[in-house]
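Section: Multi-chain targets

For targets with more than one molecule, the full set of components is provided together so that the structure can be written out for the assembly as a whole rather than chain by chain. Components appear in the order listed by the source. The example entry contains two components.
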Amino acid sequence: MELLSSKRVDLVHDRLVDQGVDYEPLRLELLDHICCAIEQKMDCGVAFAEALEQSIHGFGPKGLERTQEATIYLITLKLRKMKKLAAISGLLGGFLTVFATVFKLLHWPGANIMLVNGIALIVLLFLPTMIYVQFKQTEGVWSKVTTVVGLITAIAMGIATLFKVLHWPGASVLIYGSSILLGMFFMPLYFVRTYRIAENKLFRSSIVIVIFAGIFLFIGLTQLGGGKIFSGGFLAIMERTYHMQETMSGNNAQYANQIDEKAQSSSEKIAEMRSKANELYLHLDDLQYQLIAATNGISVEAARNASPEKINWMAGPKEINQVLFAEEGNWTVKMLRQKMADYQAFALTQYPVANQELVSDNLSFTTLESWEAKQNQSWEAANFANRPLFFVVSYLDLVKTETRHIESQVLMYRLGQSTVAASTASLNEAPEIES
Amino acid sequence: MYSKELLKGTLRTVVMELLARNEKMYGYEITQKVKELTNGKIVITEGALYPLLHKLEADGLVSIEKVAIGKRIRKYYSLTDNGSSTAQQLVEEFADFVATMKLIIDPPAQPGYGTAIV
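Its structure, encoded as tokens over all components, is:
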């Protein structure tokens, strides 16, 4: 059998193009097929032109086109089925998730079960089928990689959201993991691809960046990332404040000892000052635990023993208002103000009357009258009304620190007085001065 | 020539069985082989063969090898491991089908019916 010349092969090829066979893998295969058929016919003595017509007619009217249609139909059958599955699961999962979110915001029952089903549909059915569909449909290696990485990121985020909503352990790890996927892999890939393809590069790039910024802001604000950083920072500053108060208390004890050594006569007054300070300090401490207990729905005893990480510091302000603004009781803000004012007044009596006006500013809680004079709001309303737990507890810490500060002021003054007295006494006892 | 309906259901079996018996074949070769084996009683149309071959390729049942013949490119098909087991299943199923059909067309003689009373 003689092979067709390349010129004749070209003729057959042109004929196939004319007939509308534009799917290349099929066209090349049909070219070989028809050439084989022509060669066989020519072997039997048929002329080339006649053999070509016969072979083409062998396919029947529009047969070549139909063959192509049938081929494409069969090889895309799976893809179309997957697309249908993706569309149905996406619609259902999407609607369920949206409805569940609305239900959750309105505190209606059934939100969680809807959310779980919605996210499960999206994560387990929609996204995996989309990976298949997109992988088949996108062209170019990098576009395929970008699409697949993006969908895997979406699956990870979906699973993380599910864990978070259901309070399952490991949610934070999943959120961090998917954020890393998003930020370090998908974002750069997607950005580069967009930049390459887009006509108005700057415009398209800015849109992509803004969208990603939005996603990150969302993760940062709503997920525990932000909350954890916040509560971690809050607990750390509480710890440092406590450390400062302890140091001040230790210093004050030392001052008191020194005064005792120098002047026995004033030790009774010193002891009274210290006990007044401790009394107010303990009241503030008790008040803090009362508020933690009330807002977290636990006993005061449990509040004292609970680890700070377990306490919901964002709780309140309803329960706080109930405790602090009650008609009467030991834990009202009215009682607190009374105790603070008493303490301040007592501290002032430790100075000679002539000096009292001079030191009164330094001896007062910066947050009482002097504060009110500057603001147009009462001290109680500004610092205790409608405030969350972490604010009120931190504020009471501030008052604790000031309590120690006032104590310290008085003791320093006393120490100065007794030092002067002691040195005068020793001068009288020892008239001889070394040269 | 057999009716179209009859052939339609068996095309896949025919093609895969041929590929199982021969190491590798190209499209035109398959059509000629079938014609030859059946003395021209079964003719596979190109319009049915090529869509099927592409589908088998997409499903991973056959692997392909391209060989340049002058200006043309010839595409050889051979069964993958997966394809071989599928081919075997199809042939077994078809053989069983033929045996079953025979029961209908040519029922075995049953006692009590059609026995002549002497």
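Chain A has 18 helices and no strands.
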